[in-house]
Amino acid sequence: MNAPDRYERFVVPEGMKKVNYERDMKIMNAATFTVQREDHTIGNIIRMQLHRDPNVLFSGYKLPHPLQYKVLIKIQTTSQSSPMQAYNQAINDLDKELDCLKESFVSKCRRNKTTIKE
Amino acid sequence: MDNVSYQRFPTVRIREIKDDFLKFELRNTDASMANALRRVVLAEVPTIAIDLVEIEMNSSVLNDEFIAHRLGLIPLTSERAMDMKFSRDCDACDGDGKCEFCSIEFTLNVKCTSDQTLDVTSHDLVPSDQQYPVYPVGFMERAEYGGYEEDPPEQRGILIVKLRRGQELKLRAIARKGIGKDHAKWSPAATITFQYEPEIHINEALMETLTLEEKKEWVDSCPTKMFDIDANTEQVVVVDAEAYAYDDEIIKKADAMGKPGLVNIISREDSFIFTIESTGALKAADMFLNAIEILKMKLDAVRLSMETEENDDQFGELGAHMRGGL
Q1: CA B40 to each of CA B35, B113, B195, B287, B293: distance values in angstroms, whole numbers, following the listed order
Q2: pTM (2 decimals)?
């Protein structure tokens, strides 16, 4: 009867920011990104992509609670980079990777003479 | 500095492709990407499903809620779903779900007048609007003429309820776009799995120290037929590496026979074998393609806003200090 609406799991409430950035006050070049209404799907790919960046000293993500629909991504970098720069870079790289995957998949589908919707 | 990229270049090799089945190899990427794609196909690729049911007349043995639930689970052809709007952010109708951009109306009106039990199936759902091709799965393939009883079972549609003489079911249903995260009825996937590709190295030198009997015994110890013995050369050969269930049975057997290291199995961490089965709502290939598109949109949504970046720059001296005095 008092169950929350199902869409609360994936619709960001009005007035709430999708991504919040908070700098760590004790460690240099460290920050926490709070991403609202996302889960392991986004958290894990961003973390793993950050691991490929040699300037990233630490990156990890957590889902604080299954009923709090947000992920925390913690990043620490060397002084050559910044958490924000590393985060943006990771997203750009993942985006390009998906472009590449899409291209490869579409061309292979064509070769198999399969009609796909584009 | 800004030009460095740690991007990967994944490749795909399709093994088998049908409308509702797809098997392919995904290489040069990692498990996080494979799993993200799997999760997106399951829970975030949109389809169309019945979401609102108004029952006018129901004298069947099943209650209204039960029938509404059964209607919701019927897969509808959803090629249109990617271009449709979610009814909650449809501007044309303020989200009451009764406009052409976000909803499709169906009616069902069946009454049993014979002594024989009448099956109400998904084929009895009639779309009121013929403009867009949204039908229950299998609707277009149904036999046009020829009685219901003569139709092959797979063309009879999905059973909703059975009626006896005098019973009637009349209702109006509104189908909407949605995602599997909201309710599993919107998930386009029947199953979607990926596995690592196993790489099997047989230590040939050690293998030759076994007698034919021992080889047979070892080959037969594998619960999933991965190995066989070549009839001519009497050598053990790998026949189906992918049958390996990562159960370590043959490795244990080799140890038990006093031949540790007889075989070495590694799983390649950068290549995956995907199997996708569709409910029929979307083609399997479209499901995967839509998943890539959705994952891109999700990534785009989690980019930092300009405002956040500017606020950080304005952090001033303390910010500069925290960045290491640069």
Answers
A1: 8, 47, 17, 10, 10
A2: 0.88
